[in-house]
Design goal:
heterodimer, A: alpha+beta, T-fold, 3-stranded antiparallel β-sheet, about 30% helix, globular, B: mainly beta, Porin, 3-stranded mixed β-sheet, elongated
Chain lengths: ~300, ~425
């Protein structure tokens, strides 16, 4: 069965006027907040959310050996035919690569072979980086739905999209389920929060905002870096707080620029963005990190609410 | 990266995200629209008791001709036969009229509403070209022509829709022009003149322009509301060349002579239309109200209520009730007293004070994956002031507004091919 066991348990507790359902997925604490009196409904929605998060983790995690990503990453230069959902994500990744002028690239993961972000001063030398960089770049692969063909030694990693995708997908599934279930309470809103990647479908009753604790990446799951109040939209954070290198007084973030093979200099520790949905927020946060020193200017130009640490 | 380019990243991301999340369903939708025609066909039978019968087959076909670009072709063929009131008032004796073309004479019995017998057909063709000029702006250009034996009409309109506020709000604005040519056999009679001696003129025409503003708002997941305002101006020959009126004796009410009706040569009207669609768990409620007024003195109110009741997955029933009421035009009367016929005068019952109630039911059923069959049955009763207070002499014993009962049956079939 699965190589990485997934803790498939959920818990449901009643908070101040709403239900909180919790479970663990994608190496993060996940929760949904749902404003209803109906505990059976809350239970059902929690199960739908957890099942979807676990499904996406199982299907797209690069740590597993029984999924499409593993099949692609071990294809040794042969074409792999992918299903429609994977194709959608590949199209999306391609578009993000274009929009970021090559800075966001799902093939950049192999750079980790030479960059180990453990807080040490282990900086690779230039020839090492060059060698790995030869296996990085969307322009080096062939993608024509449904066929994906990587060069031997290349890998893809959907980790930069997966969690946000899971949030937005879960929102859609919960909205469908609510639509079917609720006749008397048409305007039930909820929050999906997968490890700080958040989607709020609408305000609480009485137009009250949801108050959501933000995970502090410096002590994930333990510390909170504050709260946000949100009525509607997606929130995502891109950060490197625990993963960096320091050498000769220079702090190298774990955000690698695949166009150079080197970490982006002077990037903020973390960027949090609010946008229309979670995937948009996530990509804008990632794009901002890839801008390094220009992160804030980039986000100001995009006209989205954000903050950086 | 330049600043201008950066700003568009957010929009581009939004599009990519939307495409990804709507996933499978969107791929399918594009396939359907790519190369296939959406076809709606119907045949309508309209029958007024003792009056007009209409058989009207219609067809509408829509097809994508590019990305976010559609063309719609419309065709209606009407075949009309029967009789309609000619405007003359009933009297206590038989009345004889010569038909407008002068070919035949028609006798109306005492106490009966005088009618013209007629037979006509009409062919109407239209085309719409709809195009998204950006992610939030949609334009529609339409052209229509229609031809009857004695009537030609051509119209052009342009509409623009703006989506705002995450597509929860749509604002629309439109402009329309039309040109009509009236060419009865033997020419248009000189309006306001005695029927027996009126000069016959050549063809006449009228032109019209209209503007429309609308807003459609998604109130919540279940409720949609629409508010439209339309203003229209028309000028030229606005008479009905077949309508006449009776000039009656001020003492006895007896008909002394017939005149061709004469209406003002301009008309300005305003329409306010409000509509709400409310989705229940499965069923849908439609409610609309329309207010109309013009400078001829007509004010009307229409309330229309329909409820779509789902009968399981494949079929539905849609009962409907509609109430309509209007005040008469300033220059309307059932008949006019000799010596005091105003400049503008008409006895066309369509301009009279009246109200009507329509009850209807529609049954629809899905056939296969993308076809639907439906049948609609409607019954309308229209009534006016049949015993007005200004009736003179024996008119007081007569029915001066002939009630109208009409039945509509329509069979429709929509499919994609």
């Amino acid at each position: 069965m699965s190589q990485v066991p997934i803790n498939q348990s959920t818990e449901l507790i009643q908070a101040d006027g709403y239900w909180v359902g919790r479970f663990q997925a994608m190496a993060s604490p996940c929760e949904i907040l749902l404003e209803t009196e109906d505990s059976a409904l809350a239970k059902r929605l929690l199960q739908i959310a957890a099942d979807e998060a676990w499904r996406i983790e199982a299907k797209f995690s690069r740590y597993r050996k029984d999924n499409i990503v593993h099949q692609i990453n071990t294809s040794k230069g042969k074409a792999v035919s992918v299903d429609e959902e994977t194709a959608g994500l590949l199209d999306y990744a391609q578009r993000c690569c274009e929009l970021s002028e090559g800075r966001f690239d799902i093939t950049s993961g192999v750079l980790r072979e030479v960059w180990r972000f453990d807080g040490s001063d282990n900086i690779p030398d230039i020839p090492q980086v060059k060698q790995v960089l030869a296996r990085v770049g969307w322009d080096k692969l062939y993608w024509q739905q449904p066929n994906l063909q990587l060069q031997d030694g290349m890998e893809i990693d959907l980790g930069g999209i997966g969690k946000e995708y899971a949030v937005d997908r879960t929102v859609l599934l919960l909205q469908e389920a609510l639509q079917e279930a609720l006749q008397q309470e048409p305007d039930t809103n909820f929050v999906v929060n997968f490890g700080g990647d958040i989607y709020v479908t609408g305000p609480r009753k009485g137009d009250e905002p949801w108050v959501i604790a933000l995970d502090d990446p410096r002590a994930s799951g333990v510390l909170s870096s504050g709260q946000i109040q949100l009525r509607r939209g997606g929130v995502a954070t891109s950060g490197d707080a625990r993963r960096f290198l320091v050498k000769d007084g220079v702090r190298y973030s774990h955000i690698l620029d695949p166009t150079t093979g080197w970490p982006v200099a002077d990037a903020p520790h973390s960027v949090t963005v609010i946008a229309g949905n979670c995937m948009e927020a996530g990509m804008l946060a990632t794009f901002a990190m890839l801008q390094g020193k220009q992160a804030k200017i980039f986000l100001e130009e995009q006209g989205v609410p954000f903050w950086t640490i | 990266m330049q600043l201008k380019k950066k700003q568009s990243i957010r929009d581009a991301l939004a599009v990519a995200t939307c495409t990804l999340l709507s996933g499978v369903s969107q791929t399918q939708a594009t396939e359907v629209n790519d190369d296939r025609w959406e076809l709606d066909t119907a045949i309508l039978f309209y029958s007024e008791k003792d009056r007009v019968e209409v058989i009207a087959p219609t067809a509408t076909a829509k097809k994508a001709i590019g990305e976010d670009e559609f063309i719609t072709l419309r065709a209606v063929y009407d075949s009309l036969t029967g009789a309609s009131p000619n405007g003359a008032s009933p009297t206590n004796t038989a009345q004889t009229f010569t038909s407008p073309s002068g070919e035949s004479t028609l006798t109306t019995q005492a106490g009966e509403t005088p009618m013209w017998e007629f037979r006509d057909m009409r062919l109407a063709l239209g085309v719409d070209w709809e195009r998204s000029t950006s992610r939030t702006v949609r334009d529609t250009l339409s052209a229509d022509i229609s031809k009857e034996r004695d009537y030609f009409s051509g119209a052009l309109s342009a509409n623009r829709n703006w989506d705002l506020n995450d597509r929860l709000t749509t604002i629309s604005a439109g402009l329309g022009v039309n040109y009509d040519l009236i060419s009865p056999e033997g020419g248009v009679p000189d309006a306001g003149q005695t029927v027996a001696t009126a000069k016959v003129l050549g063809d006449e025409s009228k032109t019209g322009t209209s503007v429309l503003f609308g807003i459609t708002q998604v109130i919540n997941r279940r409720t949609l509301m629409q508010l439209n305002y339309m203003h229209a101006e028309s000028s030229g020959y606005l008479n009905d060349p077949y309508k006449i009126l009776s000039v009656v004796d001020s003492g006895t009410g007896a008909t002394l002579q017939y005149l061709y009706e004469k209406r003002p040569d301009s008309r300005s009207s305003d329409v306010l239309f409000w509509k709400m669609v409310y989705h229940l768990s499965e069923d849908v409620l439609h409610l609309s109200y329309r207010y109309f007024q013009d400078d001829w003195g007509i004010k009307s109110h229409t309330v229309d209520l329909a409820y779509r009741y789902e009968l399981g997955e494949k079929s539905y029933l849609r009962p409907r009730v509609r109430y309509y009421t209007q005040s008469g035009a300033d220059f309307y009367n059932h008949s006019f007293v000799n010596g005091s016929v105003p400049t503008y005068a008409s006895a066309d019952s369509r301009l009279a004070e009246m109200d009507s109630v329509t009850l209807g039911i529609k049954y629809g059923r899905k056939v296969g994956s993308d076809s639907e069959f439906s049948v609609r049955l409607e019954q309308m009763v229209q009534s006016g002031k049949d015993h007005p207070s200004d009736a003179i002499g024996f008119q007081q014993q007569l029915d001066l507004y002939a009630e109208l009962e009409a039945t509509t049956i329509q069979f429709s079939y929509s499919t994609t091919f």
